[in-house]
Amino acid sequence: MAKIRIGTSSFSSKDWIGPFYPEGMQPREFLKFYAQHFDTVEIDATYYRIPSKSMVEGWNNSTPEDFIISAKFPRSIVHVGEKASPDADKILHPEHTYDDRDTFLDNIAGLGKRLGTLVLQFPYFSKKHFTNIGPFLEKLDRFLSDLPDGFSYGVEIRNRNWLKKEYAELLRSYKVAMVLADQAWMPHGDEIEKKFDPVTSDHLYIRLIGDRKEIEAITKTWEKEVLDRSERLDRWADLLARAAKRQINSLVYINNHYAGHAPETARRLSLRIADMLRNG
Question: pTM for the whole thing?
Fold first, then answer.
């Protein structure tokens, strides 16, 4: 049976002290404790700055050898700068990213066998960036062709109408994972399946992000679940169970903004999948 790894997006929330981390635990101890309960994590901090080699070494020292760490590409690469909006003139021109890209890949490679998928998380693109999917795919093709071999890559987009067969085919040609994001305005993975096969590499990569505006109207602390995502979790469990039966491995990462407390949501999703696989 294929491997389904489920973890959270980041492990550093101090709101988890009590409901997940023991009272009094120091942040430097979080990852070691986390790795006793989950077998993978997605590092969000790499989006904001390139991790140092010593930071990567710390992740290695805090996790077992069979633990998997995925990470986001830094914003300086994805946006070609540190602004919230990408540079429309430089976006997806690889020559503008070489210094940061090569430093990032060199440092993150220190994870060795622990290294999972490296995600290019793109924002919603307005017409000032790309008038339609065509120019985006042309630039993405060039960008992906320029990425160094030896790494597992994923691409996430936030333009719902760009989730088309030609997008999947481009990613598949490079064996790059199409990131399935359960996010405010994006479709569920099973809706995408009705149009085309979203498996574009040797594994599925799923991010349960949620609706930031919706949940922050209820809470801005992350010690418990405050939204019932049971219906959507059942659908994700079904999708993942079916993928496993096709011998497709999966990486799934859950954000606090999805339901309110990512560790509990991850636990519940794991139980749903196990039940589906057990009952055929």
Answer: 0.97
